[in-house]
Specification:
This protein is an alpha/beta fold. It contains ten helices and 13 strands. It folds into two domains: about 190 residues, Rossmann fold (3-Layer(aba) Sandwich), CATH 3.40.50; about 130 residues, Arc Repressor Mutant, subunit A (Orthogonal Bundle), CATH 1.10.10. The strands form four sheets. Strands 3-2-4-5-6 form a five-stranded parallel sheet, sandwiched between helices. A three-stranded antiparallel sheet has the order 9-8-11. The protein is elongated, with a radius of gyration of 27 Å.
């Protein structure tokens, strides 16, 4: 029978939102049911009974450790460690994922006090001594590690799991329907989260902020050795909304660096061609091309703003393919949609 396994994901929360979302999506791709602190508000003593029940209902347990020890109970034990110890004592199959470079984690995502750092170090040692651990240093590498490790664990230690309602006796149908609703709610919640503006971009240049783009071009100069073409370098001003508006539609599926360079060159031509013709008093202006360093700056900035990313499609070649993120698609529709004119 086809089974869906319920997997409890335990970690600190605020510093690992992106990583948790990546793990949740990976679990859904594996037809697993993610469970964790997204099910309940901030931890407190009153919820501990509920948390234990959720862990008891899960087939597998995933622990993620980065730069924070997290909030603690009245005895000074972190809730993440408390969940881990409970799962360990209950005999749950556990996979632990520890950050590869704790010293390299951004300061705002680490513990501010030496006491908390010591607590985290002790917790890491407990986990390392008990079980084999995988290492990660980004949301992508964590997602891949979870995918391969959990798949191997399911194959070597299959659990009871959940099955579809048409595969079991009718008296369990209502329970399965509730489970399916729960999965749908998670999928909807994750889909909605992926369309929200990512955290940490408030101090980045975006939207209608100015962007200075350097480009090279050729023009016919009558005074140049009796008349000939000369190359020049100049720069123009655009903004991020204009750039995304020009590049974005071509990344609704996916586009290569060359595709995006071509579209960006077209944007620059629209901005500067008439000006260059007037400046050099000639119609013969050609080969307007953005400098490669500025092309890379544009792509890196759009990626940093959470608008584009590496295409999820598999390719056999080594070419880089870009596509819009769910947030990028929503943002593009906002800036390109035709607005209704008020009477």
């Amino acid at each position: 029978m086809d089974k869906r396994y319920q997997v409890f994901v335990s970690s600190t929360y605020e510093d690992l939102k992106e990583e948790r979302q990546a793990v949740m999506l990976t679990l859904l791709k594996l037809n697993c049911i993610p469970a964790g602190m997204e099910l309940f508000p901030s931890a407190n003593e009153d919820q501990w009974t509920f948390i234990k029940r959720v862990i008891d209902e899960c087939d597998y347990y995933i622990l993620i450790i980065a730069g924070r020890y997290g909030s603690r109970d009245h005895e000074g034990i972190g809730y993440t460690q408390k969940e881990y110890e409970y799962a360990f004592d209950a005999g749950k199959p556990i996979i632990s994922f520890l950050h590869k470079d704790p010293e390299g984690i951004a300061p705002e995502k680490t513990e501010p006090t030496s006491e908390a750092k010591q607590k985290l170090a002790e917790f890491r040692k407990i986990v390392t001594d008990r079980k084999l651990c995988s290492k990660w240093n980004s949301a992508d590498s964590l997602s891949l590690a979870v995918f391969s490790s959990l798949l191997n664990l399911i194959n070597t230690q299959p659990s009871e799991g959940w099955v579809k309602s048409n595969q079991i006796y009718s008296e369990n149908a209502e329970e399965i329907l509730q489970l399916k609703k729960k999965i749908e709610q998670y999928e909807l919640k994750l889909a909605n989260l992926s369309t929200l503006e990512p955290d940490g971009i408030d101090d980045l240049s975006k939207e209608n902020d100015r962007v200075y783009l350097e480009y090279k071009y050729e023009y016919f100069d009558n005074s140049y050795h009796g008349g000939g073409y000369r190359e020049n370098i100049n720069r123009t001003i655009s903004n991020w909304n204009s750039i995304l508006g020009r590049l974005g539609p071509h990344m609704l599926v996916e586009a290569t660096n060359d595709d995006l360079e071509y579209r960006l060159n077209a944007l620059i031509r629209d901005l500067v061609l008439d000006k260059l013709k007037r400046k050099h008093r000639t119609e013969n202006v050609s080969d307007i091309t953005i400098l490669n360093k500025d092309l890379m700056t544009v792509l890196i900035q759009l990626q940093s703003l959470g608008l584009i990313g590496k295409s999820p499609k598999e390719h056999k070649d080594s070419i880089r393919y870009w596509s819009l993120t769910p947030y990028g698609e929503r943002y593009l529709s906002q800036i390109l949609a035709i607005k209704r004119k008020l009477k």
